[in-house]
What we know:
The chain has about 500 residues and is mostly helical. It has helices at about 1-15, 30-35, 40, 45-50, 70-80, 85-110, 115-125, 130-135, 140-160, 165-180, 190-200, 200-205, 210-230, 240-245, 245-255, 275-290, 295-315, 330-345, 345-370, 375-385, 390-400, 405-420, 425-435, 440-450, 455-470, 475-485, 490-500, and strands at about 265, 320. The protein has a two-stranded antiparallel ribbon. The protein is globular, with a radius of gyration of 24 Å. The model has no long low-confidence stretch (mean pLDDT about 90).
Amino acid sequence: MRWREAALVGLAALAVHARTLGFDFTGLDDRDLLVDDQPFLSHPSALWRVFSRSHMHVVDAGHAYYRPLVTASYALDAQWSGVRPLGYHLTNVALHVAASCLLLALLRRLALGRGAALAGAMVFAVHPALAPAVAWIPGRNDSLLAVFVLGAWLLFLRDRARPSWGARAGHLALFALALLTKETAVVLPLVCLAHVALLEPQAWARLRRPAALTGFAAAWGALVCARLLVHPGGGAATARDLAANLPLLEMSLGALVLPVRPTVLAVVGDLPLWPGVVALFGLAAATRLVAGVRLRVVALGAAVFVLFLAPSLAVPGTLVLGHRLYLPACGVLLVIAEIVRALALEPRVLAAWAGVTVATLALLTVAFEGAYRDRRSFAREAVAGSPGSALAHFCLGQSLQLDGDDDGALAEYRAALAIGPTEVAHNNIAVIAMRRARWAEAEQELRQELDLDPRYGRAYYNLGIVLRREDRPGEACAAEEQALALAPGDEAARQERDRDCAP
Length: 503
């Protein structure tokens, strides 16, 4: 029966997301990570060389994100798919199927009952708020992370039920893989401890003995320290960053419980608060009024939601990206599944309710997911969903520029810069100026770009071209050397340097 239910969940995920296999790139990060980095990804040695570079290496060799297993998965896809998006989309769908089945296993393990567990996993498989992790190739960060995290959590629970070295080793191995996938994995030990404290109070009393506590803390701590030694990452968030991002908790809850208007990207100021308010009061009222709801299970779900969302609050800026809701959704669905279990609905009533809910969410996902079909659809949906987002206007400007509409692109880039400092926008304006042989204007824009981001190698490369056109070869060579220092894999910059700056 478990395998049949897992197959049903997998088929639901496939049925809703299969059409993404025909989608193109969106132009947001995927071209940087896949198309521009293809010389690296397509080489078999990339599978071990990924551990010696940052995630966004092609843009910035010193980038704070270190996610080698995500890049390794791109490299595996590149071996047979090359620059065709099909292979990358296929892996995204497969990861979502796997994560949905693992969530089913976790919900069953938490004694929610077959019907509630199956309904929760089906909702996860087709939920529109989670579509970005499937339809947008770089959203793989979170679906791959979820596979490792949910697998590690299940093995932790297996070890709690029947201690074994195999389960412990598997748990720690998956935790290590999660740490090499995304920084959010660092909260997994807190999730495991919350599970023990809330659902195994007697076990928690035993855990407080020094020897047992030291064993858990030492294993998790050693892995976290090893990860930080390999790549320390960026600086800590400021209090201002955290305060500005606190509304994300309420907005994220609203997006998961009442997905009335999913967005491909947004800023906090463009998103409504009312769905989150309604969702919070609705879940609180149901928890209070429905007899038999286990408050400890609800508390665990709330802890999972907050803990997995907390790292997003530490990211500077107020950008909202849907794929970051992937693991927090597990906590919300745990709360809802517990309420459904306590309602003790007749199997037919539960099946009908779940069927209507899943079908409605699936239709919303199909309607929303088309925004990821290609860069033009993505950019227009980004601006429509969040007109106050500088990044949305930048994406639309980039799409228009690639389509040859330079005037339209300039208008969107100016709109983005009017909202706030926008990296790469000045560089792209400079490219248009270069195409029109306005070298002085191009140099000014590139200087402004480098003031915003002194580590942007492509701007140095373009500046070298402009300076050479202005008959300033010495400065041009210096700019090309800087471009190579920041992006060693940029073969175009290397060829320019070798041709024009040879001793």
